[in-house]
Batch of 3 targets.
Target 1
Amino acid sequence: MKKTLVLGASDNPARYSFRATHMLKNHGHEVVPVGIRKGEVAGLPIHTDRPQEKDIDTVTLYVGPQNQPAWYDYILDLKPKRILFNPGTENPELERLAQQRGIQTEEACTLVLLSIGQY
């Protein structure tokens, strides 16, 4: 299973990050939800700090490119194996920075990847 950090996590059921967190957990992945507002999603607390997690396989982004620069160092310092840019989060600058550090990047939808068994 792939330990996944959901950046932009929300306790709002209308948000894709909410659905992704539930779906990841239901597929047996360890999930670390990180967002800007405290709350709970899929029975997990949403971290509003920047937890220093180890062994992150995937960071899945639900933060728009205009808000990502404040997160660059945090994301890259986690040393994930890959970063998933969900629709609307595509960011060539962050992709380039990640690839320079040997981090795989993918423009794809977490929900779709999970639903077709390609996560």
Note: The chain has four helices and seven strands.
Target 2
Amino acid sequence: MIVAFSVTPLGVGEDVGEYVADAVRVVRESGLPNRTDAMFTSVEGEWDEVMDVVRRAVAAVEARAPRVSLVLKADIRPGVSDGLTSKVETVERHLAR
């Protein structure tokens, strides 16, 4: 499964990059395949391990912020691995035509 999620601290002002970095650090230290862009962090793995990473990423932000917003989108597709790369490669192949 691939989960794309965004964790946003609320009540800490406009500059939230330091808080978001705490969440991304949890994801990167998990060892699961992941990718971060300007809006979301995507992580790939089995249900329990991915949801545990999301939970810990939220907790990292929650430890320093009075309120946290979580947006999550999941692609649950058993038997598929390396989706973070293969999905993008498929689109790029179609664009190259």
Note: The longest helix spans residues 47-62.
Target 3
Amino acid sequence: MAAMEFLPVLFMIAGVVLVAGATLFVSSLLRPSNPYAAKNMPYECGMDAAGEAAGGRLRVQFFMLAILLVVFDVETMFLFPWAVVLKEIGLVGYVEMFVFMLLLLVGFAYAWLKGALEWEA
């Protein structure tokens, strides 16, 4: 492939960056800017923060579980392309996928042993 074949793609990227930058610049000039204390206060669901949220503490378990779910879902998505080309990749690809699965299992065991899957009330 010649570099000239990518010229339309580069023009499109440049156009998108130019339009996005111009939009942000013009909106920064036109928008009202009147911050005050009540507007800058943190809130949750339109109500004042109360309980643990008022002190700035947050539950890490929610985030740990979400991150673990995303990681394992993304790693599981690698199994589908592997299954489609299983006959073409041969024994080497088969062994590599089982090494990948072993690493996934080790990560799951580590998260389990560290208590990342425990839910404390």
Note: The domain at 58-120 is CATH 1.20.58.1610 (Methane Monooxygenase Hydroxylase; Chain G, domain 1).
